[in-house]
Amino acid sequence: MKKIALEEHFVTPDFLKLTQTADFPFMDPKCTSNFQECLLDFDNQRIAAMDRAGIEIAVLSLTDPGAQGQLDKGTAIKLTQQTNDFLAHRISRNPKRFRGFATLPLQDPIAATKELERCIRDYKFLGALINGQTGGLYLDDSRYLPFWEKVQELNVPIYLHPGSPATMSDSYNGHPELSGALWGWTAETATHTLRLIFSGLFDRCPGLTLILGHMGETLPFLLWRLDSRWAILKQPRKLKKSPSQYIKDHVYVTTSGMCSNGPLLCALQELGENRIMFATDYPYESIDIATKFIEQAPLSEEVRQHICYRNAQRLFPLAAEAHAAIAK
Ligand code: MN
Q1: What is the domain count for the chain?
Q2: What is the model's pTM?
Q3: Which letter does DSSP use for residue 179 in this model?
Q4: Residues whose Cβ atom is located within 5 A of ion ligand 1
Q5: Which of 50, 133, 253, 315 could join 216 via S-S bond, C-beta 3.0 to 4.6 A?
Q6: Which residues belong to the active site?
Q7: What is the CATH number of the domain that holds 101?
Protein backbone atom coordinates (compact mmCIF):
# COMPACT_ATOMS: atom_id res chain seq x y z
CA MET A 1 0.00 0.00 0.00
CA LYS A 2 1.27 3.49 -0.81
CA LYS A 3 2.48 5.57 2.10
CA ILE A 4 3.44 9.04 3.29
CA ALA A 5 6.11 8.75 6.01
CA LEU A 6 6.45 11.52 8.56
CA GLU A 7 9.52 10.98 10.78
CA GLU A 8 12.38 10.47 8.34
CA HIS A 9 15.67 12.03 9.37
CA PHE A 10 18.64 13.58 7.58
CA VAL A 11 21.77 15.53 8.43
CA THR A 12 23.79 18.07 6.44
CA PRO A 13 27.57 17.81 5.89
CA ASP A 14 28.04 21.28 7.47
CA PHE A 15 26.07 20.25 10.49
CA LEU A 16 28.17 17.14 10.97
CA LYS A 17 31.36 19.22 10.97
CA LEU A 18 30.05 21.49 13.73
CA THR A 19 28.23 19.09 16.02
CA GLN A 20 28.38 15.66 17.55
CA THR A 21 25.22 14.64 15.73
CA ALA A 22 26.80 11.54 14.29
CA ASP A 23 27.61 10.17 17.74
CA PHE A 24 24.99 7.75 18.97
CA PRO A 25 25.94 7.41 22.64
CA PHE A 26 23.09 5.08 23.60
CA MET A 27 23.58 2.50 20.88
CA ASP A 28 25.86 -0.42 20.08
CA PRO A 29 28.34 0.83 17.42
CA LYS A 30 27.61 -2.37 15.44
CA CYS A 31 24.06 -1.07 14.93
CA THR A 32 25.00 2.51 14.12
CA SER A 33 27.80 2.03 11.59
CA ASN A 34 25.69 3.09 8.59
CA PHE A 35 23.58 5.81 10.24
CA GLN A 36 25.75 8.73 9.18
CA GLU A 37 25.81 7.55 5.58
CA CYS A 38 22.02 7.05 5.58
CA LEU A 39 21.41 10.49 7.13
CA LEU A 40 23.55 12.19 4.48
CA ASP A 41 22.02 10.27 1.57
CA PHE A 42 19.00 11.57 -0.35
CA ASP A 43 19.34 9.60 -3.54
CA ASN A 44 20.55 6.03 -3.20
CA GLN A 45 19.68 3.75 -0.30
CA ARG A 46 17.03 6.17 0.99
CA ILE A 47 15.07 6.10 -2.27
CA ALA A 48 15.61 2.35 -2.65
CA ALA A 49 14.20 1.74 0.85
CA MET A 50 11.26 4.08 0.13
CA ASP A 51 10.54 2.24 -3.12
CA ARG A 52 10.63 -1.15 -1.37
CA ALA A 53 8.21 0.12 1.27
CA GLY A 54 5.81 1.91 -1.05
CA ILE A 55 6.66 5.26 0.56
CA GLU A 56 5.79 7.81 -2.09
CA ILE A 57 6.55 10.86 0.04
CA ALA A 58 8.99 11.14 2.96
CA VAL A 59 8.69 14.25 5.11
CA LEU A 60 12.30 14.94 6.08
CA SER A 61 13.56 16.40 9.35
CA LEU A 62 16.99 17.17 10.79
CA THR A 63 18.12 14.51 13.25
CA ASP A 64 18.08 15.06 17.04
CA PRO A 65 19.20 17.27 18.78
CA GLY A 66 19.74 19.54 15.79
CA ALA A 67 20.60 23.15 16.50
CA GLN A 68 18.72 22.87 19.79
CA GLY A 69 21.91 21.36 21.21
CA GLN A 70 23.83 24.61 20.58
CA LEU A 71 24.39 26.92 23.54
CA ASP A 72 25.01 30.00 21.41
CA LYS A 73 21.91 31.68 19.95
CA GLY A 74 23.75 33.17 16.98
CA THR A 75 25.19 29.78 16.02
CA ALA A 76 21.76 28.18 16.34
CA ILE A 77 20.14 30.83 14.14
CA LYS A 78 22.83 30.47 11.46
CA LEU A 79 22.77 26.66 11.56
CA THR A 80 18.99 26.41 11.28
CA GLN A 81 18.87 28.82 8.33
CA GLN A 82 21.61 26.91 6.53
CA THR A 83 19.93 23.59 7.26
CA ASN A 84 16.52 24.76 6.05
CA ASP A 85 18.08 26.20 2.87
CA PHE A 86 19.87 22.88 2.33
CA LEU A 87 16.69 20.87 2.86
CA ALA A 88 14.69 23.08 0.49
CA HIS A 89 17.35 22.52 -2.15
CA ARG A 90 17.26 18.75 -1.68
CA ILE A 91 13.47 18.71 -1.90
CA SER A 92 13.60 20.79 -5.09
CA ARG A 93 15.80 18.10 -6.67
CA ASN A 94 13.16 15.42 -6.00
CA PRO A 95 9.87 17.21 -5.29
CA LYS A 96 7.69 14.20 -5.95
CA ARG A 97 9.30 12.16 -3.17
CA PHE A 98 10.27 14.65 -0.45
CA ARG A 99 8.67 17.26 1.75
CA GLY A 100 10.21 18.91 4.80
CA PHE A 101 9.76 19.97 8.39
CA ALA A 102 11.65 23.12 9.38
CA THR A 103 14.30 23.09 12.10
CA LEU A 104 14.15 26.11 14.40
CA PRO A 105 16.50 28.13 16.67
CA LEU A 106 14.35 27.75 19.78
CA GLN A 107 17.06 29.35 21.93
CA ASP A 108 15.56 32.60 20.61
CA PRO A 109 11.74 32.41 20.43
CA ILE A 110 11.48 35.47 18.19
CA ALA A 111 14.09 34.15 15.73
CA ALA A 112 12.36 30.74 15.79
CA THR A 113 9.05 32.39 14.91
CA LYS A 114 10.62 34.29 12.00
CA GLU A 115 12.42 31.21 10.71
CA LEU A 116 9.22 29.13 10.80
CA GLU A 117 7.39 31.83 8.86
CA ARG A 118 10.20 31.99 6.28
CA CYS A 119 10.22 28.22 5.80
CA ILE A 120 6.45 27.95 5.37
CA ARG A 121 6.23 30.99 3.06
CA ASP A 122 9.35 30.49 0.91
CA TYR A 123 9.88 26.73 1.05
CA LYS A 124 6.35 25.38 1.62
CA PHE A 125 7.59 23.16 4.44
CA LEU A 126 4.76 21.28 6.13
CA GLY A 127 5.47 22.47 9.67
CA ALA A 128 8.40 22.09 12.04
CA LEU A 129 9.94 19.29 14.05
CA ILE A 130 11.15 20.20 17.55
CA ASN A 131 13.39 17.98 19.66
CA GLY A 132 11.99 18.55 23.15
CA GLN A 133 13.32 21.26 25.47
CA THR A 134 15.95 23.84 24.53
CA GLY A 135 18.46 24.91 27.18
CA GLY A 136 16.00 23.87 29.90
CA LEU A 137 13.13 25.85 28.37
CA TYR A 138 9.93 23.94 27.55
CA LEU A 139 7.43 25.10 24.96
CA ASP A 140 4.81 26.05 27.54
CA ASP A 141 7.08 28.91 28.67
CA SER A 142 5.33 32.25 28.16
CA ARG A 143 8.24 33.42 25.95
CA TYR A 144 6.98 30.95 23.31
CA LEU A 145 3.42 32.28 23.22
CA PRO A 146 4.06 34.55 20.17
CA PHE A 147 5.63 31.49 18.48
CA TRP A 148 2.51 29.42 19.08
CA GLU A 149 0.28 32.26 17.87
CA LYS A 150 2.28 32.30 14.63
CA VAL A 151 2.04 28.50 14.34
CA GLN A 152 -1.73 28.80 14.66
CA GLU A 153 -1.86 31.62 12.11
CA LEU A 154 0.22 29.63 9.62
CA ASN A 155 -2.00 26.59 10.30
CA VAL A 156 0.85 24.05 10.36
CA PRO A 157 1.45 21.20 12.81
CA ILE A 158 4.44 20.90 15.12
CA TYR A 159 6.05 17.47 15.42
CA LEU A 160 7.20 17.18 19.03
CA HIS A 161 10.08 14.73 18.70
CA PRO A 162 11.94 13.29 21.70
CA GLY A 163 15.01 14.92 23.13
CA SER A 164 16.86 14.61 26.42
CA PRO A 165 16.14 16.86 29.40
CA ALA A 166 18.73 19.57 30.21
CA THR A 167 19.63 17.72 33.43
CA MET A 168 18.81 14.11 34.24
CA SER A 169 16.59 13.34 37.21
CA ASP A 170 18.09 11.36 40.13
CA SER A 171 15.69 8.58 39.23
CA TYR A 172 18.04 7.68 36.35
CA ASN A 173 21.16 7.48 38.55
CA GLY A 174 23.16 4.34 37.84
CA HIS A 175 20.91 3.40 34.91
CA PRO A 176 22.23 4.96 31.70
CA GLU A 177 20.19 2.44 29.70
CA LEU A 178 17.00 4.22 30.84
CA SER A 179 17.92 7.72 29.75
CA GLY A 180 17.54 7.54 25.96
CA ALA A 181 15.14 5.97 23.48
CA LEU A 182 14.52 2.91 25.68
CA TRP A 183 12.52 4.96 28.20
CA GLY A 184 13.73 8.48 29.08
CA TRP A 185 12.78 10.14 25.81
CA THR A 186 9.28 8.68 26.06
CA ALA A 187 8.75 10.02 29.59
CA GLU A 188 10.28 13.36 28.63
CA THR A 189 8.13 13.83 25.52
CA ALA A 190 4.90 12.74 27.21
CA THR A 191 5.66 15.14 30.08
CA HIS A 192 6.38 17.95 27.61
CA THR A 193 3.03 17.34 25.91
CA LEU A 194 1.20 17.36 29.26
CA ARG A 195 2.97 20.62 30.18
CA LEU A 196 1.48 22.16 27.02
CA ILE A 197 -1.98 20.86 27.89
CA PHE A 198 -2.00 21.90 31.55
CA SER A 199 -0.50 25.32 30.74
CA GLY A 200 -3.74 26.15 28.95
CA LEU A 201 -1.94 26.62 25.62
CA PHE A 202 -4.70 24.89 23.65
CA ASP A 203 -7.35 27.15 25.23
CA ARG A 204 -5.34 30.22 24.15
CA CYS A 205 -4.59 28.79 20.70
CA PRO A 206 -7.37 26.32 19.87
CA GLY A 207 -6.17 25.89 16.28
CA LEU A 208 -2.89 24.15 17.19
CA THR A 209 -1.98 20.63 16.12
CA LEU A 210 0.81 18.51 17.58
CA ILE A 211 2.24 15.32 16.14
CA LEU A 212 3.83 12.77 18.48
CA GLY A 213 5.91 9.82 17.35
CA HIS A 214 6.15 6.34 18.84
CA MET A 215 2.36 5.85 18.83
CA GLY A 216 1.87 8.84 21.09
CA GLU A 217 4.66 8.35 23.65
CA THR A 218 2.32 6.25 25.92
CA LEU A 219 -0.36 8.97 26.14
CA PRO A 220 -3.18 7.10 24.31
CA PHE A 221 -2.85 4.38 26.98
CA LEU A 222 -3.24 6.93 29.79
CA LEU A 223 -6.25 9.02 28.74
CA TRP A 224 -8.74 7.64 31.26
CA ARG A 225 -6.30 7.95 34.13
CA LEU A 226 -5.35 11.53 33.25
CA ASP A 227 -9.03 12.53 33.52
CA SER A 228 -9.71 10.46 36.60
CA ARG A 229 -6.78 11.94 38.58
CA TRP A 230 -7.42 15.45 37.22
CA ALA A 231 -10.98 15.29 38.55
CA ILE A 232 -9.83 14.90 42.16
CA LEU A 233 -6.95 17.41 42.22
CA LYS A 234 -7.10 19.82 45.14
CA GLN A 235 -6.46 22.94 43.07
CA PRO A 236 -6.74 22.12 39.38
CA ARG A 237 -5.85 24.88 36.92
CA LYS A 238 -8.69 26.29 34.89
CA LEU A 239 -9.03 24.39 31.64
CA LYS A 240 -11.96 24.38 29.24
CA LYS A 241 -11.80 20.63 28.58
CA SER A 242 -10.70 17.41 30.24
CA PRO A 243 -7.02 16.49 29.73
CA SER A 244 -7.91 13.59 27.43
CA GLN A 245 -10.03 15.83 25.23
CA TYR A 246 -7.04 18.05 24.41
CA ILE A 247 -5.11 14.97 23.29
CA LYS A 248 -8.07 13.80 21.18
CA ASP A 249 -8.58 17.25 19.64
CA HIS A 250 -4.99 18.45 19.16
CA VAL A 251 -2.70 15.42 18.81
CA TYR A 252 -1.90 13.10 15.93
CA VAL A 253 0.38 10.14 16.60
CA THR A 254 2.68 8.30 14.23
CA THR A 255 3.81 4.70 14.10
CA SER A 256 7.53 5.61 14.22
CA GLY A 257 9.56 3.06 16.15
CA MET A 258 6.50 1.27 17.53
CA CYS A 259 5.79 -1.80 15.41
CA SER A 260 3.42 -3.65 17.69
CA ASN A 261 -0.31 -4.34 17.35
CA GLY A 262 -1.21 -3.71 21.01
CA PRO A 263 -0.16 -0.03 21.07
CA LEU A 264 -1.61 0.48 17.56
CA LEU A 265 -5.01 -0.90 18.58
CA CYS A 266 -4.92 1.13 21.80
CA ALA A 267 -4.26 4.36 19.84
CA LEU A 268 -6.99 3.39 17.39
CA GLN A 269 -9.47 2.77 20.19
CA GLU A 270 -8.62 5.95 22.12
CA LEU A 271 -7.90 8.50 19.35
CA GLY A 272 -9.66 7.07 16.32
CA GLU A 273 -8.58 6.08 12.82
CA ASN A 274 -8.17 9.69 11.68
CA ARG A 275 -5.42 10.49 14.19
CA ILE A 276 -2.74 7.89 13.40
CA MET A 277 -0.17 8.32 10.62
CA PHE A 278 2.66 6.22 9.24
CA ALA A 279 6.31 6.98 10.01
CA THR A 280 9.49 4.92 10.24
CA ASP A 281 12.13 6.97 12.17
CA TYR A 282 14.67 6.29 9.41
CA PRO A 283 17.51 5.46 9.72
CA TYR A 284 17.28 4.57 13.42
CA GLU A 285 14.53 2.03 12.83
CA SER A 286 14.04 -0.35 9.93
CA ILE A 287 11.78 0.87 7.13
CA ASP A 288 11.22 -2.78 6.20
CA ILE A 289 10.01 -3.75 9.69
CA ALA A 290 7.78 -0.64 9.90
CA THR A 291 6.27 -1.48 6.52
CA LYS A 292 5.67 -5.15 7.25
CA PHE A 293 4.06 -4.17 10.55
CA ILE A 294 1.52 -1.74 9.12
CA GLU A 295 0.73 -3.94 6.13
CA GLN A 296 0.06 -6.98 8.34
CA ALA A 297 -1.64 -5.22 11.28
CA PRO A 298 -5.21 -6.44 12.00
CA LEU A 299 -6.96 -3.48 10.33
CA SER A 300 -9.59 -3.08 7.66
CA GLU A 301 -8.12 -1.90 4.35
CA GLU A 302 -9.94 1.40 4.83
CA VAL A 303 -8.35 2.06 8.22
CA ARG A 304 -4.96 0.98 6.86
CA GLN A 305 -5.34 3.56 4.09
CA HIS A 306 -6.12 6.27 6.63
CA ILE A 307 -2.95 5.45 8.56
CA CYS A 308 -0.67 4.92 5.57
CA TYR A 309 -1.55 8.12 3.67
CA ARG A 310 -5.08 9.51 3.84
CA ASN A 311 -4.71 11.21 7.24
CA ALA A 312 -1.44 12.82 6.11
CA GLN A 313 -3.10 13.99 2.89
CA ARG A 314 -5.86 15.64 4.93
CA LEU A 315 -3.47 17.23 7.41
CA PHE A 316 -1.00 18.43 4.76
CA PRO A 317 -2.67 19.73 1.61
CA LEU A 318 0.77 20.18 0.01
CA ALA A 319 1.54 16.50 0.42
CA ALA A 320 -1.86 15.72 -1.06
CA GLU A 321 -1.08 17.86 -4.11
CA ALA A 322 2.21 16.08 -4.61
CA HIS A 323 0.42 12.78 -4.13
CA ALA A 324 -2.16 13.62 -6.76
CA ALA A 325 0.66 14.52 -9.16
CA ILE A 326 2.23 11.11 -8.61
CA ALA A 327 -1.07 9.32 -9.20
CA LYS A 328 -1.44 10.86 -12.70
MN1 MN B 1 13.19 10.17 15.32
Answers
A1: 1
A2: 0.95
A3: S
A4: 281
A5: 253
A6: 281
A7: 3.20.20.140
